[in-house]
Amino acid sequence: MARGRGGREGGARGDAPGWERSVTEQLAAGLPMPDARFDRLFGPALQRLAHLHFTPVAAAARAAAWLTAGGATEVCDLGAGAGKFCLVGAATTPARFTGVELRPGLVEVARQAARRLGLQRARFVEGDLRTVPLGGYQAFHVFDPFAEVEAGPDERLDPFVPTRDRSDDGTRLLARLEAAPPGARLTMFCRLEGRVPRGWSLADRIELDARGDWLDCWVR
After folding, report:
1. Given phi > 0 = left and psi -120 to 50 = alpha, else beta, which region is 74?
2. What's the pLDDT at 91?
């Protein structure tokens, strides 16, 4: 879920009460949305780290469009953080997006953001990616949810995340994706240490910007 990234776009300041609904309308219309403005939904502490840990708006919109183009109506974000991918997906497609996140504090932040944006098709559940039920989803999104353990203390969403070997976590998550039904779709924004699930075929690789960000698109 974490990565290095350069500067961020400037965000709007001094918006009137209810500005969140204009964000939803702008996304639904397919208009550009600066990450810095969207990230204000999460509060100053998370906003400061959003560029490291959350899928950018443009990448989330591209991923959501590709995942639902195959007919998926139920999409799961594996390691949702504060819910940014699901929020963008629910605003830009007709599908329902479910974010799975282990930490209850982030789940609550995501739920509050969904309410403020008026997005009823974005929901968030507390759960462990290694054990939470994944049946019923036709599409998945992954932004390396275990990378935070390698970040410095000042770059973690949760300063109390223990430092550990994340390779086993990644292996278990990939094994679960290998059991997905035929026809399922998967987008990966920054792979799990360069690894991919067996039994999936790379259908597309979308270049997102000139800085080398890619979205890998897989079909089971």
Report:
1. beta
2. 98
C-alpha dihedral over 147, 112, 28, 39, to 10 degrees? -50
Q: Alpha carbon 75 to chain centroid distance?
A: 11
Task: Please give the model's pTM, rounded to 2 decimal places.
Answer: 0.86
The structural domains of the chain, ordered by start, are: 19-219 (3.40.50.150)
Q: Which is nearest to 110 in space by CA: 169, 162, 46, 25?
A: 46
CB 143 within 8 A of CB 189: yes
Report phi then psi at 11, rounded to 5. -110, 160
- The residue type at 179: A
**H or E, element range at 46:** helix 44-53
Cβ atoms of 208 and 188 closer than 8 Å: no
Of the candidates 160, 142, 166, 150, the one whose C-alpha atom is nearest the C-alpha of residue 216 is 142
By mean pLDDT, which of 62-76, 79-93, 167-181 is the weakest? 167-181
Take residue 89 and report the two structure tokens written for it.
């997906």
Say whether 40 sits in a helix, a strand or coil.
helix
Number of Cβ atoms within 10 Å of the Cβ of 210: 6
